[in-house]
Amino acid sequence: MQTAFDPRVDFTVLDAASLLAIAMGGTAHHGPAAARSRTASAMSVIGTWRSPDGVVRLRLHTDGTFAGEVAGRRRPARGTYDVDGASVVLRDDSGLHTPVHVHDGELEMAGHRLRPAG
Questions:
Q1: Which InterPro entries match (predicted)?
Q2: Which CATH number is 72's domain given?
């Protein structure tokens, strides 16, 4: 299903509350991410991203959580994220905060440019 927000979002995995929140432009209230707003700009970053060289992979979920992998690291990164305009802040379980900049349909973080993983 394609929407005005992002054709890469697979709505078959979303529950009724999430679908309603997307349709109404509001927030789905689930767990610790309930206070985070899910604006149209937030919807544009949801999905799987990876660097062209395959070193970094990042999955941003609709519920405000993320999972990331970096080649050569044993422990995958997991945590929550917030979107503020053209910026995303990842907060992993260890307490590390990583700023991510959204520019020209790509994410830039820690010297890596990530593109949608088609």
A1: Atu4866-like_sf, Uncharacterised_Atu4866
A2: 2.40.128.290
Question: Cβ of 58: how many Cβ atoms within 10 Å?
Answer: 26
pTM for this predicted structure: 0.64
Asked if residue 1 belongs to a domain, the reply is no
**Backbone dihedral angles phi then psi of residue 30, each to the nearest 5 degrees:** -135, 120
Q: Which domain holds residue 102?
A: 11-116
* Number of compact structural domains in the chain: 1
- Neighbouring CB atoms inside 10 A of 112's CB total 18
Per-residue pLDDT reduced to its tens digit, 48-101: 999 999 999 999 999 999 999 999 988 899 999 999 888 999 999 888 999 999
Cα–Cα dist 31/48, whole Å: 21
Q: Decide: 100 and 88 in contact? Cβ < 8 Å.
A: yes
Q: Using H for helix, E for strand and C for coil, what is the string for 52-77?
A: CCCCEEEEECCCCEEEEEECCCCCCE
